[in-house]
Amino acid sequence: MFGYVTIYKDELLVREFNEYKSIYCGLCRTLGKEYSKLSRFILSYDCTFYALLLLSLNGECPGYEKKMCRCNPLKKCTYIKNGEDALSKASALSVVSVYFKIVDNISDSKGIKKLAYKFLKPIAKKWANKAKEKYPYIYNAVETMSKEQFKVESMDNAQLDMSADPTAKMLKSVLSYGEQDKSRKLILETMGYNLGRWIYLMDAADDLEEDREKNNYNPFLLMNYNGEQNFKNYISQILNQSLAQAYNAFELLDITLYKGIIDNILLKGLAQKQRAVLFSEEKNGNKSV
Amino acid sequence: MVTNPYKILDIPETASDEEVKTAYRKLAKKYHPDKYVDSPLKDVADEKMKEINEAYDMIMDMRKNKNSQNQSSYGSSTGYGGASDPIFQRVRQLIMANSLDEADRMLDSMADSQKIAEWYFLKGMIASKKGWGEQAFQYIQRAVQMNPGNPEYTAAYQNIMRARQYGAGGAYNQPNQQYGCSCCDMCAGMMCADMCCNCCGGGC
């Protein structure tokens, strides 16, 4: 949806990078197979992370195979062999979030942009309905988020914690869905909540300048702060707090498959993105994945 | 309860005492109750801590000989203590039972004159358990300002401050600034040194 949940490539083992890429390519293939060729364009790092986590929780190595790339006939890609369930859920999350994002954008934008979103809406709706049939829990979670978010942003002075709550709750329910073990469920809920909170607040931090100019709602703009640098540092602290909570929760999970990749994402990838957004540090060369 | 203590510490049975200790310390750091004081996962972490404590004690007991020093393991913290006012005690019980809304309502219904440091601390704990980190930070900060000597408030405050300063993984995981650059600096340094060498010595 936002693409903040990425790896920090420089610190990843080459083997891990290849594994990550094969999940990424696998998700692209599944999107194309289950929805349409067009839906491949909505492939995101965030949903790749969801697939990665599901595979890791499952604990069985999915195996790898080399096949022709579906987008570029001159290239060969490595795909994961099994793990269709994880990829299918992650594809559903992709299309459903894109659909609600489009609905949201229609009411927020004007002119030609609005027209473009209106044009895209029926296509995305078709995908989202298909996903809803297969995974109603994902559709319901994102729909609830969208409704709650609207309510929160219509309030005059929704404070920061409240504004992040809908996204946080969405990821909390999606990540922990179907987990039978009680403490594992609690761990996934805490991890999901804080990761969702982080994503929402990152998006808000990213839009800060634009929202300030256009006088839009932004949870950070309600805070009074002396000087831009102090302000950015303070935002960074709030984001850090969520990340630490999410990682502390993750540490209590006893998983081994892809642990290195998830560690890399949670400890380094997200921190890197955070610095890039807040302090305009050079964005990591993730484009080449 | 503990089935195979070696499995829990993730070490082979042939591990030396030193290796057992190292493995235990590593896990104890990972699950340390201080990290989870304000988290909904407190019980889960405590449970894990208990497990590794038991495993460690079991291994040490099994290996015990006359001169064992009985290295005691980290104790797991025991809930909240030292509440004075009965209302606060009740609120603490509710928080521990995870009835956060009810606890919150009870606190909100109290008169302003009753809002002492403990009131702010408990408000902060409720917010924290809900995941509302910013509110939790504000309340707990206030509690510490009102009563700086209280170890319970200070511990919670320091835990939040650590998270806010260092983010995920704590102080040992500060990316970029340290490594990336220092490596380049080293390279540049070497290149400079090499140039000097060539200049003066004429080919070393």
UniProtKB/TrEMBL annotation, chain A:
It holds the Pfam family DUF5685. This is Uncharacterized protein. It comes from the Bacteria. InterPro entries: DUF5685 (IPR043740).
Automatic annotation (TrEMBL), chain B:
Residues 4-75 form the J domain. TPR repeats lie at residues 117-150. GO terms for biological process: DNA replication. Keywords: DNA replication, TPR repeat. This is J domain-containing protein. The lineage of its organism: Bacteria, Bacillati, Bacillota, Clostridia, Eubacteriales.
